[in-house]
Fold this protein.
Amino acid sequence: MRIRPLLLFVLLAVVGFALRRARLPVAAYVLAAGAFLAAIGGYGLSRQLRLQRRGERVTGIVVGHDQQWVAGQSMSNPGSYAYRPVVRFRTRDGQEIEATTRVGTPVGIRPGREVPVLYDPANPSSAEIDAFRERGVLNLMTAVFLIGGVVLMVVGAATLLRP
């Protein structure tokens, strides 16, 4: 399941509107934002751990890239392309799969290169390159969301519960 940025924006706007209508203090916003971030981080972490535990490791080959524009944050940095590797591999039962990984980099992995692949046997098209550079980025992102969310929740709750 991929959460689209527009859906996230709408969800945050609805939660923000509800909190504003309830005339809750700023700490309630912080608590809600923390819960939201922790939920995203928890989901990502559970997905990564499930793939790590249940995944099958095979060797695949990079056959191309899915090029995606990533907008920049300022006028001086308009953005750049991220290249998500497309890998082809055979599952343990002999099925040939071509999958696009979730992690994109500014410089793609050269097509034709053999790479270790970790895939979900229940959904072989859900595959990642099994290397620290690729999976480490996902783990770092989920950790930042989870830890940041928990910190915001603690700060928000402590502020609300303060006499």
About this structure: The two ends are 42 Å apart (CA to CA).
